[in-house]
Amino acid sequence: MTKYFQPIINFGPDPVKGSLFLSDRNFWFDKVKVLQRGRKPFIINSNDVPKTVIKDISKSFNLCGYKNRPLIMGVLNLSPDSFSNVKQIPRNKLQNHIENMFNEGADIIDIGGESTKPNFVDVEDLIEIKRIKRAFKLINKKFSEKIFSIDTRKSSVANFALKNGAAIFNDVSSLKYDSKSINVVKKHKCFVCLMHNSGNGKELHQKLLGKNYLLDIYDYLQDRINFLLSFGIPKSKIIIDPGIGFGKSLNQNLKIISNIDLFHSLGCPILVGLSRKGFIGKIIGQKEPKKRVLSSVILAFELIKKGVHIIRVHDIKETSEMFKIFKSLKIKFVKQESL
Q1: What is the pTM of this model?
Q2: 30, 73, 167, 338: most buried, per Cβ within 10 A?
Q3: C-alpha to C-alpha distance for 198 and 205, rounded to whole angstroms
Q4: Which residue blocks in the chain are alpha helix, DSSP H?
Q5: pLDDT (tens digit per residue) in 137-194
Q6: What distance in Å separates the CA atoms of residue 331 and residue 125, rounded to the nearest whole number?
Q7: Active site residue 37
Q8: Active-site residue among 69, 277, 292, 305?
Q9: Contact by Cβ (8 Å): 300, 319
């Protein structure tokens, strides 16, 4: 029976004697939860975990030149029907908008030309490319040293973006929607983000069923990692995303957040996007996405305390301010340890 190992991550100084660490020594664990289907979880000491699992949990990552966690991925929606109530950006203001995103603290900008909100409408490849074309022309001219991601399910759109400055192929379908996508990844040797979902096309948001859904998400991501590995894509190029909000109930989303450290044992950087999402509105009683900023930032803080590597957000400035507080705590902890 398959065992799943969830390090119980602590953030801060004074690790318990015998603790093990993530690549950043501000994150440590001396206990690991072991999960198995059909059995109750139990706790073991970290030193009793197989060495191959510990190697994956403690792995150091180099994300497009960034070696320090966490990173902010700012969202640049260029579709007219974004769920987050972002207004369309006039063409003559797009450069200033991108500059402002970096100035506010974005490490990566994720550009998308098709909304994948619940009940979204499929967009033809050429229309999606047309929506993002202006942005990628600017990238080549003005932002060639910055990091960009393309948020798409389509190989032709990804190929266009990767040819014009994108470094990450962020696919909510985990390369399942378009069979040609794997060839684009091989061609460009890009980073690729695999997101858990409940199906392809319109089924991206079908309900996630079963009591073992955390392990189902884990197995899905492991399967997609293995798919990439089978095509010769190195694991160092793979990012994983548990897919908050995609087919998940309120309780499921919260359970994923509180158990996010389970996914460290997959041995890939973890990306989470929960900014302004509907489940937050249900908790705070707020239907307006733009009024879910504070709650989004609070949940992001909980994630980075568990060692999540990338947070995908709409509200860069507010998230960046929280990151500054978080990083100041890390510095304080290091100074305390050196006393």
Answers
A1: 0.93
A2: 73
A3: 6
A4: 51-57, 94-104, 125-142, 155-163, 181-188, 213-230, 250-258, 278-284, 293-304, 316-338
A5: 899 889 989 999 999 999 999 999 999 999 999 999 999 999 999 999 999 999 999 9
A6: 46
A7: no
A8: 277
A9: yes
Domain 62-338 falls in which CATH fold?
A: TIM Barrel (3.20.20)
Residue 226 has a CB neighbour count (10 Å cut-off) of 9
Summary count for the chain: helices (H), strands (E): 10, 14
What residues does 258 pair with on adjacent strands? none
Section 1-11 average pLDDT: 95
Q: Which of 224, 292, 312, 330 is catalytic?
A: 312
d(C-alpha 324, C-alpha 322), whole Å: 5
Say how many Å lie between the first and final Cα of the chain, rounded.
Answer: 46
Q: Name the token pair of 274.
A: 């929960």
* Neighbouring C-beta atoms of residue 15, cutoff 10 Å: 17
- What type of residue is 157? V
Give residue 128's pLDDT. Answer: 94
- How far from chain centre, in Å, is Cα 175? 15
Return the half-sphere exposure (C-beta side, CA atoms, 13 A cut-off) of residue 337.
13
- Measured between alpha carbons, how far is 98 from 137 in angstroms, rounded to an integer? 12
CB atoms under 10 Å from CB of 38, counted, come to 7
Contact call for residues 6 and 259 (beta carbons, < 8 A): yes
Amino acid at 294: L
Burial class (CB in 10 A: 0-12, 13-18, 19+), 62: exposed
Residue 57 falls in which region: left (phi positive, over 0), alpha (psi -120 to 50) or beta: alpha
- 50 phi and psi angles, rounded to 5 deg: -50, 140
Write down the domain spans for the chain: 1-52, 62-338
312 catalytic residue (yes or no): yes
